[in-house]
Specification:
By secondary structure, the chain is an alpha+beta fold. It has 27 helices and 29 strands. The chain has an 8-stranded mixed β-sheet, with helices on both faces. Strands 7, 8, 9, 10, 11 and 12 form a 6-stranded antiparallel β-sheet that branches. Strand 2 and strand 3 form a beta hairpin. Helix 11 crosses helix 19. The longest helix is centred in the middle third of the chain and has 21 residues. The structure holds S-adenosyl-L-homocysteine (SAH) and magnesium ion. The site of S-adenosyl-L-homocysteine has 18 residues, from helix 23 and strand 23. S-adenosyl-L-homocysteine (SAH) binds next to helix 23 and strand 23. Its EC number is 2.1.1.386. Belongs to the methyltransferase superfamily. HEN1 family. Keywords: Magnesium, Metal-binding, Methyltransferase, RNA-binding, RNA-mediated gene silencing, S-adenosyl-L-methionine, Transferase.
Length: 907
């Protein structure tokens, strides 16, 4: 419909909407389509004698609308019958779909018409938010003509803005331009309105409103009370702090006049109003003083960086941030307190990690995670939504996603594959469909800022979108948190994340962010860590979900004053995914379920503290006295194992890990091995379990790079070994045990020539090239008699994930979509198919004079898709082992020796 009821400039232009869509827009659920099959389509068909027609059936649709019923012609397709019925209804009802597309002259006329409409008597009693301003202006003493600021017309009347766009397209993003266009249009309505002198950007009626109208308005609020409005003052100078203040508006007064006084200008006419910032549903706007003169290019005062950052428009001089105004909902003035806390929350909500923190309501605990592992492990807003929020708060266009579905044929790359391989697809696995997703971020003017196009593929379309979104967010976050980062470094990081960006547009769009966010140097190690309570032994490991309760306060060292900032009864996060502030994770991984801890850290940037603080004044006064720290108090409530472990335990009996141990034991027995080294021993599950079996082993060694895992391994091995020695009939003959901290891609001659070496579920945790390097080093230098290597069989994932307990992994909205087929554990760098694994192992064995055979645990070799864990057993062909060079890069971190074998102690 046109703005003023005139016919459109281009009535022949066809509406892009289908008839059904138009009906839906009008009637929604009230439109009811009934399609029937029309069997007899012969012109003179006589039902009584009907012989079933052979030809294609035809359909006719009856559309029931509240006032009319229409019947379509007959069609071969049901769809066409429905559209035809809708089209007939549109004709009957006279609904015409038109687009507003006026010529410049028509737009000028429409604009004048709009102004005339607003200044007519009737408008004063309308529900339009603008009418509230008209009434308030009229209530001012001695202003029987009303004197309405043009800025409110520009901001509160969407139609005015829309018309102005056709006069000058730049008006869309420039409310000052709208103001000057409205003034020019009003200038033509000489018999209706007057334009006040140049300093006052307002319009008033030429003749007063009729007395009865004025009387009814003044009657509206006879009570003389004062309405307090809590607002924020944002000084133009960055040196001056943002502070809160309360404006008092008389119930008969005009709130914009009060804001004007606060800004140091005469009245509402000189106040500029920004668009809505923050939540679209709020009335949060920034108010500043208008330039003294037209045209609007000589602002007094300097650029207000903070206010401009929020509005995305240039704001000059001091500004007020307030959530107040007339709305469609009520004729009463709507108002909401804007506290310092809300100001800082808006500021925090400008950075990607900040948006995540706010979404979790955990500003002093959460952090944007480094990877999108699984939907079920993600907490808080999803990356894609965060990216949309980010674009909205920075006044950019909506991100543009394009997903691509790839139907992999058998000769293509599978995720994580080392090289192109022929993959024999079994029927039960079926063709593997995957998705990849690209996202583009544009400025409001459609300039491309960045584009992220990862090659990696995902089983679900949404996972691809989330993962790409997170890459963009992580990169943007680096840009926000490191003001001094060089373009070179930024480019390098972008490359790693498959991002391409336009530096020029990036710096233009975010020119103010570095003067706004001050991330300074990062928090160092926590001090005063104190962990208390019984050690239940249940500790979090990478990939598991930890659930904690926490509370953070501001703590002043001198007098031990405390101010509570933030707390949460139950806060879940994924360990090892940087989902919380580093110091928090450092402490949590040292805890066991049921234990509590408290510790102190240096202060984060004050925007975070003030965004979290309930009472910002008390917090501010504490902050100003320096020597403050943050004090955390946490309790570890629960730990949920990573998906891989849960699956392995739930789906296999005995659990897959136990089957791996039994597999190793069998080879130890067969070979009468006396020495064993477990490469990548983790927390020692294999070494630990081996002790429960009677074997020929005398010496066991574990190597890992994770000190945390090694510490756990040492603890459990220590107690188990000592218990063994004490028992009457020890099941094992172990004489010594050692744990080394070291990378298995390096050779250490102390572990040369062992009888048996194991490397279970480790290689997939290394980059493929490191896995290959390990293979070469172990067979060429460590030279164990037997080497057992296990790794997940990628092809088996379909089965694992199909039987994942309900709700763990499956997205209810996507029940019909193909199964998730990600890696089993987010720390996995690759997962190989059987062909890939066999290819790697066969080649390796051949080069180092070993034989290799394949086996596995979970499932069966001859049932598709093979074993769940695939295993290669390498056997050295020659018995004589050549000497090797000495090397000892590994650091022993724990050693155990049977006491009766120790040299006698000195007295
Ligand atoms: N073998 C254990 C642990 C498997 S988890 C089990 O079956 O339970 C994988 C382990 O490999 C982790 O503990 C990790 O720290 C270790 N790891 C990864 N890369 C390594 C490297 N380059 N050197 C030594 N250990 C490594
Ligand atoms: Mg693994």
């Amino acid at each position: 419909m046109t703005e003023t009821g005139k016919s459109p400039a281009n009535p022949t232009k066809k509406s892009p909407m289908t008839p059904k869509a138009i009906i839906h827009q009008r009637f929604g659920d009230k439109a009811c389509y009934k399609v029937e099959e029309v069997k007899d389509s012969t012109p003179n068909g006589c039902p009584g004698l009907a012989i079933p027609q052979k030809g294609p059936s035809l359909y006719r649709c009856t559309l029931h609308l509240p006032d009319i019923i229409v019947v379509s012609d007959t069609f071969k397709r049901k769809k066409d019958a429905e559209q035809s019925a809708a089209e007939k209804a549109i004709e009957k009802l006279g609904i015409r779909q038109t687009e507003y597309n006026p010529s410049v002259q028509e737009a000028w006329d429409d604009l004048a018409g709009r102004v005339a409409f607003m200044f007519a008597n009737e408008f004063l009693s309308s529900l339009h938010p603008l009418s509230g301003h008209f009434r308030a202006a009229l209530r001012r003493e001695g202003h029987l003509n009303g004197c309405v600021p043009v800025s409110v017309i520009a901001v509160y009347d969407a139609k005015t803005g829309n018309i102005c766009k056709y006069i000058n397209p730049a008006a869309e993003a420039n409310s000052l331009l709208v103001i000057s266009l409205v003034l020019r249009a009003a200038a033509k309505l000489t018999d209706l309105v007057l334009i006040s002198d140049e300093q006052q950007l307002s319009i008033q009626r030429r003749y007063p409103y009729p007395p009865e109208i004025i009387a009814s308005i003044n009657h509206e609020s006879s009570l003389l009370e004062s309405i307090p409005i809590e607002v924020i003052r944002i000084p133009a100078s960055l040196e001056k702090a943002v502070d809160s203040l309360t404006l008092n508006v008389a119930s008969t007064g005009y709130y914009l006049d009060v804001i004007a006084r606060e800004l140091g200008v005469t009245d509402a006419s000189n106040v500029l109003i920004s668009r809505i910032i923050g939540k679209a549903s709020s009335e949060m706007r920034i108010y500043s003083s208008a330039p003294k003169q037209l045209p609007f290019d000589d602002f007094e005062g300097s650029l207000n960086v903070r206010a401009s950052y929020f509005t995305g428009q240039e704001v000059y001089g001091d500004a007020i941030l307030a959530s107040v105004g007339y709305t469609w909902k009520s004729t009463d003035l709507f108002r909401e307190a804007v506290s310092l806390r809300s100001y800082y929350r808006m500021l925090v909500n400008k950075t990607p990690s900040g948006i995540y923190k706010i979404s979790r309501d955990a500003i002093l605990a959460a952090k944007l995670p480094s990877a999108f592992t699984t939907k079920s492990n993600w907490r808080g807003s999803f990356p894609r939504d965060i990216l949309c929020t980010f674009c909205r708060v920075h006044h950019l266009s909506e991100p543009v996603f394009s997903t691509q579905s790839n139907l992999l044929d058998a000769s293509l790359d599978l995720p994580g594959s080392r090289k192109k391989l022929k993959v024999t697809q079994s029927n039960s696995v079926g063709p593997i469909g995957t998705f990849s997703c690209e996202v583009k971020i544009y400025s409001k003017n459609q300039e491309l800022i960045l584009q992220c196009s990862p090659q990696e593929s995902h089983r679900k379309q949404t996972d691809a979108m989330q993962s790409t979104s997170l890459k963009v967010l992580s990169w943007l976050n680096i840009f926000f948190e490191n003001p001094d980062i060089s373009l070179e470094k930024l480019k390098l990081l972008a490359e790693k994340l498959d991002i391409n960006f336009t530096p020029h547009s990036l710096f233009k769009e975010f020119s103010l962010c570095h003067s706004m966010h001050n991330f300074g140097s990062n928090v160092d190690e926590p001090s005063f860590i104190d962990i208390g309570g019984q050690n239940s032994g249940v500790t979090p490991s990478n990939g598991s979900l930890a659930s904690i309760s926490y509370s953070v306060s501001l703590f002043r060292e001198g007098d031990c004053m405390k101010e509570h900032l933030e707390s949460c009864e139950e806060f879940e996060f994924e360990i090892g995914n940087e989902a919380v502030l580093p110091h928090l994770e450092t402490v949590v991984v040292q805890m066991a379920v049921g234990q509590s801890a408290y510790f102190r850290v240096e202060l984060p940037p004050s925007e975070f503290i003030l965004a979290a603080a309930g009472d910002s004044l008390a917090t501010l006064s504490l902050l100003s006295s320096r020597s403050c720290k943050l004090e955390y108090s946490i309790t570890l409530l629960q730990v949920t194992e990573p998906l891989e472990d849960r699956m392995e335990q739930a789906l296999f009996s005995p659990p897959l890990s136990k089957q791996r141990v039994e597999f190793a034991v069998q080879h130890i027995k067969e070979s009468s091995a006396a020495s064993l080294v477990d490469f990548g021993c983790g927390s020692g599950s294999l070494l630990d379990s081996l002790l429960s079996y009677p074997t020929s082993l005398e010496k066991i060694v574990g190597v890992d790079i994770s000190q945390r895992s090694l510490a756990k391994a040492a603890k459990s091995l220590h107690s188990k070994l000592n218990a063994l020695v004490d028992s009457k009939e020890p099941s094992s003959k172990i004489k010594s045990a050692v744990l080394y901290d070291g990378s298995i891609t390096k050779f250490d001659s102390r572990l040369h020539g062992f009888d048996i070496a194991t490397c279970l579920e480790v290689i997939e945790h290394m980059e493929e090239e490191d896995a290959c390097l390990f293979g070469d080093i172990v067979l060429s230098s460590f030279c164990p008699r037997i080497l057992i290597v296990s790794t997940p069989n990628y092809e088996y994932n379909v089965i694992l994930q199909r039987s994942t307990p309900h709700g763990q992994e499956d997205d209810p909205d996507e029940k019909n979509q193909s199964q998730t087929c990600k890696f089993r554990n987010h720390d996995h760098k690759f997962e190989w198919t059987r062909a890939q694994f066999e290819d790697w192992a066969t080649d390796l064995a051949a080069r180092h004079n070993y034989n290799v055979e394949f086996s596995g645990v979970g499932g069966a070799a001859d049932v598709e898709p093979g074993f769940a864990s695939q295993i290669a057993i390498f056997r050295r062909r020659e018995d004589n082992v050549t000497n090797v060079e000495l090397a000892d890069p590994y650091v022993p971190i724990w050693e155990w020796c049977r006491e009766d074998l120790l040299p006698p102690k000195e007295p």
